[in-house]
Amino acid sequence: MTALFVALLFIFASGSGKVARASGAKGSRFVCTAVPAGTDLNCPVDTNNRVQSTSPLEEELRNTIIQLRETILQQKETIVSQQGTIKELNSKLTRCEADAKSRSNARRKDYSKNTMGDLPRDPAETVEQLGKTMQSLKDRLGNLEQLRTNASGGPFPNELKDLLKHRLSDLEGQLLTRVAELEEEKSQLYNETATHRQRTENTLKSLLERITELEKSNSAFKSPEDFKVSLPLRTNYLYGRIKKNLPEMYAFTVCMWLKSSSSPGIGTPFSYGVPGQANEIVLIEWGNNPIELLVNDKVAQLPLSVSDGRWHHICITWTTRDGSWEAYQDGERLGTGENLAPWHPIKPGGVIILGQEQDIVGGRFDATQAFVGELSHFNMWDRVLRPIDISAMANCSTYMPGNVVPWVDANVEVFGGATKEALEICEDRLFDS
Question: Measuring CA to CA, which residue among 310, 281, 284 is closest to residue 297?
């Protein structure tokens, strides 16, 4: 149409166009013919100077050519627009891939910093986000293809469509691979977190038990050694147990505070049994017999008397050399002797029981041999102490914990109704005297 109007305007403006007179009419009239732009405007005439007429077929062909030219121009504009959109989509796809790769590297770094209280984000969130991005790209691709179809009346060129499908397939493959990696990392993270949590819970449990034990000890006694074990009945089930294990020894000193008024005999203040020898070391007063010291089931009678219901400090020393022994009461040496299991080392790996005599290691007690009373400050050394040290402990002028068995709350367990009670031994002894 544009070409037609240009031609008409040109003809009327110039006034030099060729016109044909209609024959057979009373007068003259002008006949205008549409010609394309750029066409020679000199009207074709025949030899008689008459304008040649145009056939309908030629007119239709001209109109078709004009429409095709306009359609081609519109298609060019549409293709340029679509190429710009495709470039934008490729750019966004490239940025998406780069962003996904950077987030993957950053997340791996974050996982390497897995500490308590600084855990990485749940990988499921990343999987969900990548899925949303993938779906968004699919939707945009579908919209772009629909827009192209509506604008041009046909689909994308096959080459472009294949390229986009190939890129989409690659992106789907990368997404599936990343999903699998994230699932594996999630599983590893869960296992590591569970193991770390279990170790933490075990550590906290141990600390809590230790704190509870210390709080209980501190709430009951002013200091770990200021307590006594009370065994009020003559039974075969009240007793205390020392948790410490003895090494092999070639000499020893055992000291303790005792208070008993039981008769006949105070029973067994302590016994040490080892596999194969239940009477490795025993201190016992049974029936009307005097107090006896047994080493490897060999017996020495001690000139001690502690059944008056008052606190007494007792110390016994022994050495494998010639089987020499000494007995102290309240800081004074009352007896010595030799040939008590000479050259016999004290065996390790046994059990020390307070208040009972062992017939097998750690058990089979006899009620008639049980200690009735109270005892405290049971200490053992792997050497023979000097008389001056023993006297200082008996006079409450010094306190020496045993280097093999020290008397502390954590080392003593009680069973069967035996109790541990607070006691400041020297103050209580002064009150009794």
Answer: 281
